[in-house]
Amino acid sequence: MIDHQVHVRPSADRLPREEQLAWKLAAVATGTQDAPDLDPEAAVTAVDRIIDNAAVAVAALRRRPVAVARAQALGHPTSSGASVFGVAAGTRVSPEWAAWANGTAVRELDFHDTYLAADYSHPGDNIPPLLAVAQHTGRSGADLLRGIVAAYEIHVALVKGICLHAHRIDHVTHLGAATACGIGAMLRLDTDVVYQAVQQAVHTTTSTRQSRKGEISSWKAFAPAFAGKAAVEAVDRAMRGEGSPSPIYEGEDGFLAWMLDGPDASYTVSLPGPGEPRRGILDTYTKEHSAEYQAQAIIDLARTLREKAGPLAKVRSIVLHTSHHTHHVIGSGSGDPQKYDPAAGRETLDHSVPYIFAVALEDGGWHHERSYAPERARRPATVELWRKISTVEDPEWTRRYHDPDPSRRAFGGRAVITFEDGTVVEDQLAVADAHPAGARPFDRSGYTAKFRTLTEGIVSGAAQEHFLRAADRLAELGTADLADLFPAVDTDAVATADARLPKGLF
């Protein structure tokens, strides 16, 4: 790996494009065509992510934001185009709108893959726009695979090197750049074209973290879909010869200078050198539970503590000792009263670790629908327990969260339950059971089981098998076969959600 130092530079310096971060990202992406064969483990993991994305997308098809995005996409039909989850086979829409609809479906349940380092990310959000462009442009499964691995490489590198959340910038900015790079790798575009697309994507997808703060709305699901759509459009403009604000990262009025650390900003972004395999995707991990990633180990910890705790009605207080990120993003350190509001929506509750821990402690598990039902959130005993739970930052858990060694990195915490009689029960868990370093790491069988569970009742057994066979053969698929990566669903089951929507512009 090569460490690239990124600094703000005055316009008078006329920083050569080859020295700009956007060019270096683009060069890594376009260099995949000259690199050795894809790393076998990376290729297997890419298939796992396609299965994971399809599972959570199908499970979300009847939810309102997904139905809205789908309806908008269907307002842009085209004879070529791309497929949409939940729509009859053969229907095609313009690729940027397919990226929008499918990206929203994948993101809605907060249930797919994650990577946490200096910043947050859901690298699986790269797949919907890449798949849409692959279908539209007549690419093969092997081309798509190359693009996915490249997008993950760029996304992971940016998340490791540049922190956005400290400046309340939403993490989808890194996604826009990664998607542009992935499309460039998939289409074998020139480095200059990808360079311009990356800069356009960064410029147009920079937004604040208010989308994940306070009363969290459906925009949480739309935000990454918007970034994917914007990246598709940026690549289109760049292919037509259009330029971008440059240098987008290093410019004195650019991203680092005014959105992040200011004129004295300095970052290190590590990227593979020529000929090095692209293995960034192997650093990522998926979710067993439909909730913010920092809550995954907390849910597993609650399942263990439930057996030890005894009658929860006699609890005086529960304190979760955890990392800075967990405390301030989904814990009481956020200062968001909505995280304790029984009337809060799902988007807020899945970012409330006090709520999640209370329900998991009572139920001994987690369900992507039942655990968020309004009647579940308003249960009096749950509300009483929920409001006894707080989080505190523990410097040791923060250090472990940022440990440079992925095998030692920890995203969990320690729970201390104090009862009215003074008895204390406590336990801790470093990583979720499904994490690569956890008690039950997900492998292909785990992804397959998750897919079968989440698609039951909407995808027939035969259609499930057809999709799984297609995903397993990704590298061998022809252009027409890419449609098989969209499981055939019971469209009648989806239609009820569509029928309830008011009309929009499209």
UniProtKB/TrEMBL annotation:
Pfam families: MmgE_PrpD_C, MmgE_PrpD_N. Coiled coil: none annotated. Residues 289-474 form the MmgE/PrpD C-terminal domain. It comes from the Bacteria. Residues 35-267 form the MmgE/PrpD N-terminal domain. Gene3D superfamilies: 2-methylcitrate dehydratase PrpD (3.30.1330.120). Belongs to the PrpD family. This is MmgE/PrpD family protein. It comes from Streptomyces virginiae.
